[in-house]
Amino acid sequence: MTTQQKALRRSRNNRMVAGVCGGLGEFFGISPVWFRLGFLIALIPGGIPGIGLYILMWLIMPKG
Q: What is the pTM of this model?
């Protein structure tokens, strides 16, 4: 019996900008559309929370 551990990585296939939302979707097993929507909603109060969090995730998450 083998257990495969999922790693949080940016997606190579499911990407629009850097693959952050695609990687989060693959890791949690849900559609990346929900993460994209969450980042868009975070852009509403001035843009800094959404862009800052996305850039931080882009820098932290390794390429998949």
A: 0.78
